[in-house]
Amino acid sequence: MSQLPENFLLTAALPLRVAITLPAGPLIVPLWFEYRDGIFWCASQADSVCVRALQAEPGCAFDLSTNDMPYRGLRGRGVATCHPEQGAAQLERLLLRYLGSLDAPLARRLRRKDATEMAIAITPHWVRGWDFTERMRDSLPR
Predict the structure, then answer these.
(1) 92-104: per-residue pLDDT in tens?
(2) 23: closest CA among 60, 51, 57, 48?
(3) Apex 7 CA angle, 85 and 121, nearest 5
(4) Domains observed in the chain
(5) Do the Cβ atoms of 19 and 31 come closer than 8 Å?
(6) CA distance 18 to 45
(7) Strands (E), 2-116
(8) What is the C-alpha to C-alpha distance for residues 59 and 124, in angstroms, rounded to an integer?
(9) pTM over 0.85
(10) Contact 91/109 with Cβ under 8 angstroms?
(11) Which terminal residue of the chain, N or C, has fewer Cβ atoms less than 10 Å from its own Cβ?
């Protein structure tokens, strides 16, 4: 998929920044994600701006990158599909991935509305990755 090892996609606990199209113009939405079988799986409430926009225009762009040196990440374009029947299960997977527990206060609060959670699958069609670890080696703290 990219220059990055798949391990980065499987372990990066960063938000996937998804660019969606709204009538007023583009918007960036940060979403928790799980990379599984070549697809970025996210979740959001069925009535959210993000879900409504992706249902109206499934083409999107995305960015997954570190904020600290050495910079690495990927960006791309893809098509999103929404899956209400998988919403609650996907939310649980994301809560475990990012919070480590379904009992954390935030997890309990988000699970109260899991009946209206929507799983979002983003299938990438174009991806480019970068990893500046070697280039920045001399600039990193020792």
Answers:
(1) 999 999 999 999 9
(2) 57
(3) 20
(4) 6-131 (2.30.110.10)
(5) no
(6) 15
(7) 16-22, 25-31, 34-36, 39-45, 59-65, 72-83
(8) 10
(9) yes
(10) no
(11) C
**Paired tokens of 78:** 């893809």
Percent share of the chain, pLDDT over 90? 73
State both tokens at 47.
């009535």
Containing 130, the helix (H) or strand (E) segment is strand 117-131
- Whether residue 111 is predicted with pLDDT greater than 70 in this model: the reply is yes
Q: How far apart are CA 136 and CA 115, in angstroms?
A: 46
pLDDT in tens, 8-21: 788 888 999 999 99
- Distance of alpha carbon 60 from alpha carbon 54, whole angstroms: 8
Specify whether the CB–CB gap between 95 and 105 falls below 8 A.
Answer: no
Element (H, E) at 49: helix 49-56
Cβ within 8 Å of residue 120, ≥6 positions away: 31, 41, 42, 43, 44, 50, 51, 54, 80, 81, 82, 83
